[in-house]
Amino acid sequence: MERHILVVLPHPDDESFGIAGTLAMHLNNGTPVTYACLTLGEMGRNMGIPPFATRVTLPEIRKQELEASCRAIGIKDLRMLGFHDKMIEFEDQELLDSSIGALIEELDPSLVITFYPGYAVHPDHDACGEAVVRTIAGLPEAKRPKVHCVAFSRDHEQAIGRPDVENDIRDFLKQKMSSIQAHRSQFQAAELLGKKKHTDKELQARFGKEHFWTYRFE
């Protein structure tokens, strides 16, 4: 059992597909989870199908969707750090790293979950992972928490190998599906998924396992 898990991701909905079941599983085991979301995804292009958001209303809608997703998973400690969507790579590194470092100092997590730098498709994803790794690398080795990374870019396994952590989260698929459904503005499939039961074999096969790479510090 982990002492405390800190999740650092850049956008609302980043938690849903890749790690929601794992977080629900840890919470069920009594491990506290803190989710630090760097932005509100306010520059996202999706406005719902049919559209129900506008460029003006999207930040508040995505904030509410994020809160609903966290409730579905069971996360009670949500931190919204207020950085700018699609600009994480251009943020002041000292400010970004100090924000992450302050959370690590406050929470003393035994595990941090983020994106694998360079293998997570979106520039914000990569920059977020880089900031987490950079911050933890600056700690004394004895004080570094484990870092589990999500990776999904094309041919990523050729570069970093196969994931060394696989979690069977089929018992927590209901929470995961509810997390995905919470982000209605972003996922056209949310309504369709909501019509299937979490015991559906297709859903179990598609979403029932979550994979992570343990980051190896040099």
Describe, in plain words, how this protein is organized in 3D:
With 218 residues, this protein is of the alpha/beta class. The protein is 40% helix and 16% strand. It is built from eight helices and seven strands, in the order E-H-E-H-E-H-E-H-E-H-E-H-H-H-E. It has a seven-stranded mixed sheet, sandwiched between helices. The two termini are 26 Å apart. The mean pLDDT is 93.
SSE inventory with pairings:
Blueprint: E1 5-9, H1 14-28, E2 33-37, H2 58-73, E3 77-80, H3 93-107, E4 111-115, H4 123-137, E5 146-150, H5 156-160, E6 165-168, H6 173-182, H7 190-194, H8 201-207, E7 209-214
Parallel strand pairs: 1-2, 1-4, 2-3, 4-5
Antiparallel strand pairs: 5-7, 6-7
Helix pairs in contact: 1-6, 2-6, 3-4
CATH class: Alpha Beta
Roughly what fraction of the amino acids lie in strands? Answer: 15-25%
Number of E-type strands: 7
What's the CATH H-level superfamily name?
Answer: LmbE-like
Main sheet characteristics: 7 strands, mixed
The parts where pLDDT drops under 50 for at least 5 residues are none
Give the termini separation: 26 Å
Kindly report the spatial arrangement of strands forming the biggest sheet: 3-2-1-4-5-7-6
Mean pLDDT rating? 93
Looking at the overall shape, the CATH architecture is 3-Layer(aba) Sandwich
Radius of gyration: 17 Å
Total number of distinct structural domains: 1
